Amino acid sequence: KIPFTVARQNGQKLHEGVSEGPLLYLKLRPGSYQIAAEIDGRWQSKSIRIGTSGSAAKMMFVSGSE
């Protein structure tokens, strides 16, 4: 299970939950977001921009374990 959050760039949290993984699909309105996920006990955060074209945007978080 993978805890995650979705926030606007200004830090306003929009959604948080737990994904069963390994994939999570979100439908977000156009704009800029900060997506964070807890992987192996450590939070990773990435920015993403969703455009108005309707095409999918992809993001990947990777485990640091070897």
Key attributes of the depicted protein:
66 residues, mainly beta, four-stranded antiparallel beta sheet, 48% strand, globular
The gross shape turns out to be globular
State the distance separating the first and last CA atoms: 19 Å
Largest sheet: 4 strands, antiparallel
Helix content: under 10%
What series of H and E elements makes up the topology? Answer: EEEE
Number of H- or I-type helical stretches: 0
What is the β-strand count? 4
Given helix and strand content, the structural type is: mainly beta
Q: Ranges with pLDDT <50 over ≥5 residues?
A: none
Read across the widest sheet, the strand sequence of neighbours is 2-1-3-4
3D architecture notes:
- The protein has strands spanning 2-8, 13-19, 31-39, 42-50.
- By secondary structure, the chain is mainly beta.
- A hairpin with a 2-residue loop joins strand 3 and strand 4 (42-50).
- The radius of gyration is 12 Å and the shape is globular.
- The two termini are 19 Å apart.
Layout of helices and strands, plus pairs?
Layout: E1 2-8, E2 13-19, E3 31-39, E4 42-50
Antiparallel strand pairs: 1-2, 1-3, 3-4
Question: In summary, what is this structure?
Answer:
By secondary structure, the protein is mostly beta strands. The mean pLDDT is 88.
